[in-house]
Structures are given as structure tokens and as C-alpha cells.
Amino acid sequence: MILIEVIKQHFGEFKGETVWQWTLTNDHGMKMSVLNFGAIVTSIETADKFGKFANISLGFSSIDDYLAFSPYFGAVVGPVAGRITKGQFELEGEQFQLSINDGNNSLHGGKANFSKRMWDVAIEEQPDQIIMKFQYQWPDGENGYPGKIETKMSYILNNKNEWLIDYEAETEKPTIYNPSNHIYFNLTGDNGSTVLEHQLKVNSEQYVPLDGETLPIGEIWSVKDSVFDLREETKIAEIVSSSDEQIKIVGAGLDHAFILKHEKEQPDAILVDPKSGRCVEMETTSDAVVIYTANNLASKFNIAGVPVPKYAGITMETQGLVDAINQPDFGDIVLRPGEKFVSRTTFRFTVDGRDK
């Protein structure tokens, strides 16, 4: 029997500090490898319906590739995930300008966001789970964000084949906070393949339409009678080939936020690869999930020597709505002194034996 174990290995160097990789293994042989740089998940290994293990997430094997390219593979992003229009917002009568790193806008926290920081890590091994505890102190004014933000995060791998992410944060000044993890799943476990044959289900009746800069237009639309109605399992190939203007505007695919219904005893989203039988069920306390079908990854870099194709992976970025600070009906992402930001996301890895 495989016992819960943790292996720590040297992964590289970053600005004079050692980048370590921890590989966590549960009793069922599921493995997850994680860095202290960007809290990056470099790989997740799960079994298919034939018992064969393979990596089902996109990631690099060297720190140089993580520094050279910016697909945010497996990284925590923030302090605010997604785009903020022109990197600007007003809070309690004061105007703030964030660093610009995506055209005219700020993306995922600006330049050198959470994904490019060294996190303090502590490991706690328990009989039925392993807990990786992360800490980082975001300085007041960094990238334009007001307030020193004390951030804490935990990755938990348990014997239910679940990966849990717990987010916590406190601040000394009013600020905005809306982090996420940018994991890309490809359940085939086959390097260089696409997710076009995957089936996706999202328990959502509303989504956020975008403009040509991939910014919210400020409205919330019903999924009814559109390609965005994913309340039943839908093949990714059918979604990305749609003539819907919202699909075409982001490069023929999804890069949209879905508002989640959070119905009891129902996952918020399910991703299935019929061929391998691998399945991911996602549940979150966040208001929304951004689904991105890797529309813009094609041939920009290699993984293990294999060029990365368009649609190489799919994200489930759990968070509050994108650009909420500038949109009156998108909810509250302001964090104030005396408050604590708390959020949990669970990815449950199962095997579905159906042939489709």
C-alpha cells in the first residue's frame, strides 16, 4: 500500500533564493507537485479508468520556462485575478493606478503578481491528508495596491483524491482582493493533445459578456438559448466552433466568467475526458468561475519538447467577478481592516467509466 508521503527536491534558483518542489502522494497513488515560487502546481498525476497514472495539468519542468513564459500554469494569481480596466479604480474617494501588464489593462495583479513571488511554505502531514501552508506579505503600495496584505493559503491533498485550496487574507488599509489559481487541466494525460473531446458542465444560468479587450461590458447575460448554456455536459469542440460573437471575440473559445448557482450536493462544474475516464468535479465558495479554453497558447512554447497546441488545456479559475471594483452590479471585492477574506475551492478527481 502507498502511504501518504512528501518528497522535497531542488527545482532552481530565483533572485538568489532556492526554488523547492514538494511532491505530495496520497494513499491511492495520486501525486501533486508544488513550488514555493508562485505556489505553482507543476503537475497532478491521477489514474485513468485502466489504472494508468499520468499528469493531467499543464506545467514546466524548469524554473527558466516559468520565468520566460507567462501562461500562469498552475499558479496562484492576484491580489486580484482577471483584468481591471486601465488598471484604475476608486476606493473610498481615492483614485488608484495599478501596474499595466496586458495592453491597456492590469491582469492578475499586475507585473510580478502572486505568480512570481516566493512564498513561505510549511508542511503538515496527517494520517489522511497533507497540508501545504503558504504565507506572503504583500507590501503597501506594491503594483499600486493600497494596504499591506497578509496572505495565507493552504493546498490540501487528501485520501478522497481531493485538492482543496483555502484562501485567507487581512489588510491594514482598505484594498481590493480576489485571488485565484490558474491551473490548466488536460485529462488525457497526453502531452501535446487538446481538450476538444472533453465534456464540460457548469451549474450556471448567467455569464459575463466581454468586449474586444476581454473586459466585461458591464452586463450579465442569461445562458439560455446560447452556446454558454453548459448545464448539461457539452463537448469543448462544439463550444469553440460556435459562431457566437462572444466565442469569436476571445479567439474562438471561452474566457468568460460564469455566475455559479451553488446548489446543494451538486458540483459547481464537472470536466470529463470520455476516453480516459478521468473526471474533475469542482466546488467553490466563490461567486463565479472563469473558464478559459487556452485559445491563445498555440506554439508559443514547448512542454517536455512538445509544442503546446491551441486548446491544450482548460482552466476553472474560481473567484469573484472580473473587474468587480469598476462594475456596480458585480459584487464586492473590497477587503477592509478588521475583516478576513476566506474562500475555499475543491477539485475532486474521480474516474468515470462511461464510453461516449
TrEMBL record:
Q: Its catalytic activity?
A: alpha-D-glucose = beta-D-glucose
Q: What class of enzyme is it?
A: isomerase
Enzyme Commission code(s) on record: 5.1.3.3
Q: Which InterPro entries match?
A: Aldose_1-epimerase, Aldose_1/G6P_1-epimerase, Gal_mutarotase_sf_dom, Galactose_mutarotase-like, GH-type_carb-bd
Q: Which domain of life is it from?
A: Bacteria
Q: In which pathway does it act?
A: Carbohydrate metabolism; hexose metabolism
Name any one Pfam family assigned in the record. Answer: Aldose_epim
Keyword Isomerase set for record: yes
SUPFAM superfamilies assigned = Galactose mutarotase-like
Entry similarity comment: Belongs to the aldose epimerase family.
Q: Specify the protein name.
A: Aldose 1-epimerase
